[in-house]
Amino acid sequence: MFGKKFTLTALALTLAFGGIAPAQDSGALLDLLVRKKIITDQEAEEIRGELTKEHAATSAGKLKISQPLTELEIYGDGRVRYEIRNGNSGPPSTLVTNPNDAQQRNRQRYRLRLGLRGILMDDFFFGLRLETSASARSTNVTFGDDAGPFGKTSDAINVGQLYVGYRGLRDITLTAGRMPNPFVTTSMVWDGDINPEGLAQQYKHTFNLSFGGGSTSTAASSDGKGVAMVSAEPYKMSIEVFANFGQFVYDDTNPENPIGAPPVANGRRIPENDAYMLGWQIGAKFNFTKDIYFRVAPTIYNYTGYGDSFNSFFSGDPNFQVGNTTVTPNQTGINSLFIFNMPAEFGFKVHELPVRIFSDFAVNLEAAERARAAGHPDEGDQRYAYQIGLGVGQLKVKRDWQIQAFWQHAEQFALDPNLVDSDIFDSRVNMEGIALQAGYAVTDAVTLNLTYAYGEQIDNTLGTGGIGDIAVNPLREYQLFQADLNFKF
After folding, report:
1. What is the overall mean pLDDT for the chain?
2. In angstroms, rounded to a whole number, what is the distance separating the alpha carbons of residues 426 and 420?
3. Greatest distance between any 2 Cα atoms in the chain
4. pTM
């Protein structure tokens, strides 16, 4: 009896004053003690009551979760960055006196992202992420860019993600809102900071396969007097088949039928309707072993409408002079974009070191029409973009390291200039070059990353389409250096 009471007292003190856990968290342990007849049902209920009272008196006990919410996760990350960008000008610009003029930006920057992810009753889920900067392709804020010392005008918090989804259908996920990119992609086509708005449908199913096995062989026993039967193990692999579809609101025209003359470009009327980007991706990941895989994700992107921000045909050419007027050709048009894209990745391990070879290929099947609308009918072959790279290592826990390098080539009429990565190579097309990246995990939550990139203009008769941080077009040469200290929580 004394041992039983001592155990009961020790248990009560440990639960009530050690972890101050709510009764429901300790229920399994109390039930086990009842089954072992160490305590009675009445004593277990008394302990539960005491724990509930103790928990309600704490700050954690005052936090109430709404009934429909079954799971909630708070997460986030921050980054401090030092960055140098340098761009040199060149032909065919007619407004630059010195074709070797350069612009350089040295910036200290930070970003913060804070999010909530939750699971609701009846197979629904949601996500919310707040982040610094209102830019679609950056969450960075630059130190000292406000009026006066230490101003806060640009240090605003914006909604980066807000979405709701449903997983009640087997292998299918449906999402609506401003969401994480649902496609398998690379920085050549999509900047990683972009969160598209609209609808997405995703399917994923894993097929487990087994080949061979079941056969037997004989081998001499150690004493030489008998044989042992050995059964061959089957070879096992899995195939993850996936399909991702997206219908994104690219730009909303408001109103759809405005008063006045319709917009005209190059003597042609431009439609006045909402712009949508549609994505169609079907792919597979082949897991040959637990350490060797290959993934391929062929994709089609097409556009409908022009909106009111993109209702002018893409040019990408530099500014030019008409009399005393400076004309800035369109750098963001989405006309004649019908893009086939195929990212791929092969991964394996050398001893315990992860290695991956990754690539991307894209071709705009309507590049000839896009070039004609830009006033360059002889440049319709500028339709290809590709990337090839190698990565070694990973960043998961303290003292992990990772390095990767890739080559990228993106021609003038191959890609949507509004989506390509804003760092490599300053949000531009008609650029090619290399990027080198290295990272080290200082702790499980803090990493140090270094990035260097060098790019050059591909076709010297064209501009470098797109709008970046370097106010030079064409961007004859471009260099980037970034040093990042990241932390996550």
Report:
1. 88
2. 9
3. 104
4. 0.83
